[in-house]
Amino acid sequence: SSGINAEYGGSLVLWSTLVCPLFRPEEVGEVGELFVHPIRALQPIQITPGNSWLLTPTGFWLDKRMCMLHNNERLKHTTKGWEALYGVGVSLTEDSVVLSHASKQDLVIPLSVLDGEGEALTCSKGNSYRTVPGVGDWLTDVVGGRQITLVYSPEGAVVPGLDPVLIIGQNSLSAFEEIAGHTMEMERFRPNIVAVEKQPFADEGWAEVKVGEAVLVFCHRCTRCSITNVSPEGIRTDYTMNSLREKRPRCEKTNKPVFGSYFKVKCSGLVKPGDKIMLIKSQ
After folding, report:
1. Which residues pair with 263 in a beta bridge?
2. What are phi and psi of 3, to 5 degrees?
3. 112 by DSSP, 3-state: which?
4. Cross-strand pairs, 101
């Protein structure tokens, strides 16, 4: 991509050979699965093999562009009583996001609304949004009448300052399942990239990696909350968070368990399942 060419003067391999002979990019894994979440807190869309997705400084295209508000606050779907939202399916066509539910006709949200002039709205934390017209009533019916407003951020992600790319290793989950003594769905942890890495928890040691055309820089490990206790079907238990607290390291600042790593985007580019993950710099 042009960003990578500007950063590294063309081919990464050519740059490493001519400019820095001691530099040797190391293949440390590949993209096993790729997910985007057009509406924060609803089901993700999985990018199928062979399809590329644009990664920009604010994250993957469409990822977390919309969110739901209740009583002028971002809806925390982990709160008891909102389990019906787990039954909302999310799919993507060429020009729209489509919501589906067993009790409702499908709702089509044209992508053009994200470039429109929805009603301006400021939530209780001071974040500025614009409303997505014609959607709130559909979601309100799904959850039994409690008012929901769907909003988007003209600037990009709906949570300002949120590091845009979450990577979790498939081998990391397998290793965690082994020490925890039970299985868990990867969807509980809501990654963007599921890495097929050579060693469990390898992402925690990556300082800078090239993924597809994009270059990512490590920010911090992801602290975990009670969202992990809810299965993709909306079934609530407590064993996942209990295992995280017992078996995983804790964040020094928050004392919450960590699993997965957040990265910022240094160079934009296309990413697809099967792309190699090349280590540029270790921590």
Report:
1. 165, 218
2. -65, -45
3. helix
4. 104
